[in-house]
UniProtKB/TrEMBL annotation:
Keywords of this entry: Signal
N-terminal signal peptide: 1-39
Protein's organism: Zizania palustris
Phylogenetic classification of the source organism: Eukaryota, Viridiplantae, Streptophyta, Embryophyta, Tracheophyta
Highest taxon of the lineage: Eukaryota
UniProt similarity note: Belongs to the 'GDSL' lipolytic enzyme family.
Protein name: GDSL esterase/lipase APG
GO (cellular component) term, any one: apoplast
Length: 371
């Protein structure tokens, strides 16, 4: 156990060093005058789109949303120890990367009353749990579709101009980091149990459809002013506790479902080609993939090397009904003794401790976007 803790501490230390080094590297600019290094964010704003991997509480404002994290034990390790709508015991990757970039915290959910006035200056978060590349998938769960997220973004642009003035708003929007993190739902909440879809498309064609949707979305963002876009890769779909339970050979006790991981790898190869094509097409666009597949896969295969003791079981108790194996069971508040020992907090979402590991790898991938 001691070596676990030491390794985890070492990882945290490395992260802190990286965080200190990043802004220092960038802010040796005239902006700081003679007054030394200032803890100023290295991008003016972060603007997030996607699903529960980035949703900081938008779904709490949607009466019909099927997936909400507005009950215990979600948020037990977050500031205030209360559920906020984040799908984890504590911080999600969005929070950790925002802090790493020098912000005090991540932007409030766009649908909350807090997303107004000065808070708009540092970005906005449009993500909605169960949203996906395909609007049909999102609509099945009454989540905010990507199409609607883009409409909100357009509305945000005018609100920002009202607060900051047109010229400054334009600078914020072109300097901002745009994060797109979604797609898991298109497989696990749709394709894998939707016979009409799997009859119409084989996996390869379905992946083409999804990366095509991403490409269309990224082009629209570009036309609306985005110049730095990071997109997450598909996570190892076959290593999620929920998919191991639903599709694994050995049920709960089995390892990762290789067939599903193969689908994620297929998607990721196509995403790579799509991102490279976007970069060639727009010479003034910085675009990169935040690889979450590799760190999550490594955590699933060798959790102990990074200080975790459990990678296939969930920390909270999930439900048993088909759509409920994904989330903590609201009727059973119990949870594991220490969420930091678990890679997954619920059936699909990592614990805060695992989110720290994922964010580390995103930060190193994202350096090209912010420098
Ligand atoms: C199957 O997928 C299509 C397209 O995404 C969707 O319109 C339909 O509602 C889905 N059906 C079921 C049973 O999930
Ligand atoms: C695509 O894959 C190649 C080979 O692994 C890699 O060198 C390149 O950086 C990747 N492109 C992106 C945009 O991630
Ligand atoms: C939980 O585990 C982590 C390391 O895995 C350790 O640092 C922490 O002290 C533990 N917390 C409690 C309350 O046992």
């Amino acid at each position: 156990m001691h070596s676990f803790i030491n390794q985890k501490n070492a990882a945290n230390m490395a992260r802190r060093l990286a965080l200190v080094a990043l802004p220092t590297l960038l802010i040796l600019s005239p902006a700081t005058g003679g007054g030394g290094v200032q803890a100023e964010p290295i991008v003016p704003a972060v603007i997030s789109f996607g699903d529960s991997t980035t949703d900081v509480g938008n779904n709490n404002y949607l009466p019909g949303a099927v997936f909400k994290a507005n009950y215990v034990p979600y948020g037990v390790n977050y500031d205030g120890h209360e559920p906020t709508g984040r799908f984890s015991d504590g911080k999600i990757v969005t929070d950790i990367t925002a802090e790493s970039l020098g912000f005090e915290s991540s932007s409030p959910p766009y649908l909350s009353p807090d997303a107004s006035g000065k808070s708009l200056l540092t970005g906005a978060n449009f993500a909605s749990a169960a949203s996906s590349y395909l609007d049909d998938t999102a609509a099945m769960y009454d989540a905010i579709t990507l199409t609607q997220q883009l409409k909100y973004y357009e509305e945000y642009q005018s609100k920002l101009a009202a607060v900051a003035g047109r010229r400054r708003a334009r600078a914020i929007l072109s300097g901002a980091l745009y994060v797109v993190s979604t797609g898991t739902g298109d497989f696990i909440q749709n394709y894998y149990h939707n016979a009409s879809l799997s009859r119409r498309y084989n996996v390869d064609q379905y992946c083409d459809l999804l990366v095509g949707a991403f490409s269309g979305f990224a082009n629209k963002l570009y036309r609306m002013g985005a110049r730095r876009i990071g997109v997450t890769s598909m996570p190892p779909l076959g290593c999620l506790p929920a998919t191991i339970r639903l599709y694994g050979e050995g049920g709960r006790r089995g390892g990762c479902v290789e067939r599903l991981n193969g689908d994620a790898e297929n998607f990721n190869r196509k995403l790579n080609a799509t991102v490279e094509a976007l970069a060639r097409r727009h010479s003034d666009l910085k675009i990169a993939i935040f690889d979450i597949y590799t760190p999550l896969r490594d955590l699933s295969e060798a959790p102990a090397t990074q200080g975790f003791s459990e990678a296939t079981k969930t920390c909270c108790r999930t439900g048993t009904a088909k759509t409920r194996v994904y989330l903590c069971n609201p009727a059973m508040a119990g949870m594991c003794r220490n969420a930091s020992d678990f890679v997954y907090f619920d059936g699909v979402h990592p614990s805060e401790a695992a989110n720290v590991v994922i964010a580390d790898s995103m930060i190193s991938a994202g350096i090209s976007l912010v420098t």
